[in-house]
């Protein structure tokens, strides 16, 4: 499912126009992003948790040349599915 399909489903299931549903979906994603940028964890009970993890610097290899490449430390978003979502996927 892509974003347009998600917006269409939200509009259909909530009796909103597609424009209103798109604003709601965009606002949701924007606020999750804003919270993660601020270092917060976003917990949606029954769905899962979004959080930021620190990835250490490491050494990799360029697959074409075999030369070593330094990969800098970074912060990466992570998602951990909640119990209800896991159960829904396995039923």
Structure description:
The protein is α+β, with helices and mostly antiparallel strands. It has three helices and five strands, in the order H-H-E-E-E-E-E-H. Strand 3 and strand 4 form a beta hairpin. Helix 1 packs across helix 2.
Helices and strands, with pairings:
Blueprint: H1 3-14, H2 18-37, E1 42-44, E2 48-55, E3 58-61, E4 68-71, E5 74-81, H3 83-89
Antiparallel strand pairs: 1-2, 2-5, 3-4
Helix pairs in contact: 1-2
Helix content: 40-55%
The biggest beta sheet reads:
3 strands, antiparallel
- Beginning-to-end CA distance, first to last residue: 20 Å
User: What is the number of helical segments per DSSP (H or I, 4+ residues)?
Assistant: 3
- Taken in chain order, the helices and strands follow as HHEEEEEH
The neighbouring-strand order within the major sheet is 1-2-5
| Low-confidence residue ranges | none
Average residue pLDDT: 95
């Amino acid at each position: 499912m892509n974003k347009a399909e998600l917006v269409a489903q939200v509009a259909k299931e909530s009796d909103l126009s597609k424009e209103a549903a798109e604003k709601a979906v965009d606002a949701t994603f924007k606020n999750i992003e804003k919270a993660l940028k601020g270092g917060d964890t976003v917990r949606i009970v029954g769905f899962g948790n979004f959080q930021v993890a620190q990835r250490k610097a490491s050494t990799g290899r360029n697959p074409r040349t075999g030369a070593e490449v330094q990969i800098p430390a970074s912060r990466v978003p992570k998602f951990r599915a909640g119990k209800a979502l896991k159960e829904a996927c396995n039923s």
